[in-house]
Design a protein that fits this description.
This protein is an alpha/beta fold and about 260 residues long. The chain has a single domain (about 1-255), classed as Metallo-beta-lactamase, Chain A, CATH 3.60.15. Helix content is about 30%, strand content about 25%. It has 9 helices and 14 strands. The strands form 2 sheets. The protein has a 7-stranded mixed beta sheet with strand order 6-5-4-3-2-1-14. Strand 2 and strand 3 form a beta hairpin. The chain binds zinc ion (ZN) (2 copies). One zinc ion binds next to helix 2.
């Protein structure tokens, strides 16, 4: 399995996943040109990707999903409601529509889109199972539900949101209503909430971890790296490769 966080944060998200015989993008929130450049820089051939999974219609996730799919003649995999909300980006784009909550086969994988709470039409996280094991992703969620916790069990690789440090958010420059939105059930997970989730997900088979969607204003990569590393050391249950998602450059390709 290979994972590469190509971009992560409120200005654009895109993650590359290679598992079994299947190569996928999870979201495509940068320009087509930028995604292509970052893939090539990471040694990944864009024309070998089989499909683009879309989590929700916010621009930092869907910006060039349609353009990428049209360019490489592959499908966008998207829920009906998200497709309706993002129709402008998906003109003449090959689509595979899924129903949130129902797993479906794609290539040699089973893809399970599960609902998360966020301020948009039909936000989802994904679990992707192949003969190589399980990958799970959950970003842009206001709260960790029981379902999220259950779905993300037993992953070899995880991409988890760690959006903000609660103190930095509280004391930071954002207006009150925006602070409330971020903290709400339909906002984003804090570092603390993300680690609480990890507490329930950490197991000896967890080999790769991306901490994702960091706020540039209300968080700091060093802070996330420090709390995550110290959490892993305290847990002593696993020692995954850890990558802190970066907005401006692709992370390393993690091979597990
Ligand atoms: Zn987002
Ligand atoms: Zn969002």
């Amino acid at each position: 399995m290979k994972i590469c966080s190509l971009a992560s944060g409120s200005k654009g998200n895109c993650l590359y996943l290679e598992t079994g015989e299947t190569r996928l993008l999870v979201d495509a929130g940068l320009s087509l040109r930028e995604i292509t450049a970052r893939m090539q820089h990471a040694g990944i051939q864009p024309d070998t990707v089989h499909g683009v999974l879309v989590t929700h219609e916010h621009l930092d996730h869907i910006r060039s999903a349609g353009a990428f799919a049209r360019r490489y003649r592959i499908p966008v995999l998207i829920s009906y409601a998200t497709r309706q909300a993002a129709a402008a980006y998906l003109n003449k784009t090959p689509l595979i529509e899924f129903e949130t909550g129902y797993a479906f086969a794609f290539q040699d994988c089973m893809v399970d889109p599960f609902p998360v709470t966020h301020d948009c039409s039909d936000p989802v996280g994904f679990v992707v199972d192949s003969a190589e094991g399980r990958f799970g992703t959950a970003t842009d969620l206001g709260v960790v539900t029981r379902l999220v916790r259950d779905k993300l069990q037993d992953c070899r690789a995880l991409n988890l949101e760690a959006n903000h440090d609660p103190e930095m958010l509280q004391n930071g420059p954002y207006p009150w209503h925006l602070k409330q939105r971020i903290k709400s059930r339909h906002g984003h997970l804090s570092n603390q909430e993300s680690l609480e989730l990890l507490f329930d997900l950490a197991h000896s088979g967890l080999e790769a971890l991306v901490m994702a969607h960091l706020s540039e204003v209300n968080n700091h990569p060093d802070k996330v790296a420090a709390v995550t590393t110290s959490f892993m050391n305290d847990q002593n249950r696993c020692a995954p490769q850890i990558v802190i998602g970066d907005q401006y450059q692709a992370g390393p390709v993690m091979t597990i």
